[in-house]
Design goal:
With 410 residues, the protein is an all-alpha fold. The chain has 19 helices and no strands.
Length: 410
């Protein structure tokens, strides 16, 4: 086969969306985030068992999310330089060990260490699996990111249910049962690693070459755009931290519901996040990245402002559009950033997933300390204004005309 024919064959292969691989990494994302979501879902039980303050609860989240965030850009950058097809399965091993330790931890320090191990597993999983999603996208980058990310959202939504109906009735040691899901994820990811090595790297190369032939924004515009996107991530994940870490406490404190009832409300919110994620990707491919970013960040403001003043029924209702609208932003942000920095898929994924985890961790720690000082209700009143940061989206350059999905598939 001639070099030109081989190049054409690679381009044609890269143009086909591999739904099998997307389904596999989405399924593993579901398992990964389901296991990780057990930690915050256990907070009411841990708070009672270990006599923890809100500040200590926040430090648990901070430990998990900081370890998850600090390594992600490094993992992504290393993968851009030297692909590591089997690192996904290796990273899941850290989660496995962390789960077992979480199940049998006898003191607060061991809980912190378990949280750090689970976070380390996440730091490997997210940038590499996002990179695999782009490999398998066939140019439908928004769709691929949504399929990948919705698995994580569904897993995060399942965590509170599993905690409510399995872990809480049977105790902390029952967390060890979920180590079987980590083993299953390792098996699937090992097979994804085979595809990554045999086909994925070759699929990504034509995209990198095509991107280099396109006109790129000025370096200054790229810097400004990345800074704006990170500010939007700060807004999104600081607010999400107020719900994922403290929503159950808010409901118990304000409306005097049971722990299981609060977990069900958290499940509804996280389910809405999952729905918003899967809808966000196709909307990105159809209407463009910048437009969806605008709508998904600012559009949530009326609902967040109403939430602290609603009764129990309307609180449950309002969290649905809040979760859906906020979640639709992340696929758009990741795809937008990857188009800004062609050829740095892993670096971008690591930076943005890592920053998102970091902001969630810092947000949990700060909001926990604030809740100890002024109470949980005022925290929600303050957080309601965070989506105003979405006004910064006006500074984003328009790149949709140079990286239209249809062009990417041609």
């Amino acid at each position: 086969m001639s070099e030109a024919a081989a190049s054409l064959s690679r381009a044609e292969s890269a143009g086909r969306t591999s739904f099998t691989i997307l389904a596999a990494i989405s399924f593993c994302h579901l398992l990964n985030d389901m296991m990780q979501s057990l930690l915050p879902a256990l907070y009411p039980m841990l708070k009672s068992s270990y006599a923890l303050s809100f500040g200590q609860i926040g430090l648990l989240t901070f430990t998990f999310q900081i370890t998850a965030s600090l390594l992600q850009p490094i993992v992504g950058a290393l993968a851009d330089r030297t692909p590591r097809p089997y690192s996904l399965a290796t990273g899941m091993g850290f989660t496995l060990v962390g789960l077992v330790l979480l199940a049998f931890a006898g003191n607060y320090l061991l809980l912190l260490f378990a949280a750090a191990l689970i976070g380390t597993g996440s730091s490997v999983f997210h940038p590499e699996s996002s990179r695999v999603a782009r490999m398998a996208s066939g140019g439908r980058h928004g769709l691929a990111q949504s399929v990948f990310q919705v698995g994580g959202n569904l897993g995060a939504a399942a965590g509170p249910l599993l905690a409510a109906f399995i872990v809480l009735p049977r105790g902390q040691s029952s967390v060890a049962w979920f180590s079987c899901t980590a083993l299953l994820a390792m098996f699937v990811l090992f097979n994804v690693g085979h595809w990554y090595k045999a086909h994925g790297i070759a699929r990504l190369k034509p995209r990198v070459l095509d991107a280099k032939t396109q006109a790129s924004p000025h370096r200054k515009h790229v810097t400004v755009a990345i800074a704006v996107l990170l500010a939007l991530i700060f807004s999104k994940y600081f607010y999400l931290a107020s719900l994922t870490s403290y929503y159950t406490f808010y409901l118990i404190d304000r409306f005097h519901v049971s722990v299981q009832n609060a977990q069900l409300h958290l499940f509804v919110f996280l389910g809405a996040v999952a729905l918003g994620t899967i809808l966000g990707g196709p909307l990105v491919d159809r209407f463009g990245r910048k437009y969806i970013i605008w709508v998904s960040i600012l559009g949530v403001l009326p609902f967040t402002l109403l939430l602290p003043h609603a009764n129990l029924f309307w609180t449950g209702i309002l969290t649905v559009p809040i979760g859906m609208i906020l979640a639709s932003a992340f696929p758009a942000i990741v795809v937008y950033a990857q188009e800004l920095l062609p050829g740095r898929t892993g670096t971008v994924a690591g930076l943005f997933f890592g920053f998102a985890f970091g902001m969630g961790g810092i947000g949990a720690a700060v909001l926990g300390k604030l809740a100890d000082t002024i109470g949980i209700d005022p925290v929600y009143q303050l957080c309601a204004f965070l989506p105003l940061i979405g006004l910064l989206a006006g500074f984003l350059p328009d790149i949709d005309n140079r990286a239209h999905p249809a062009a990417a598939r041609s």
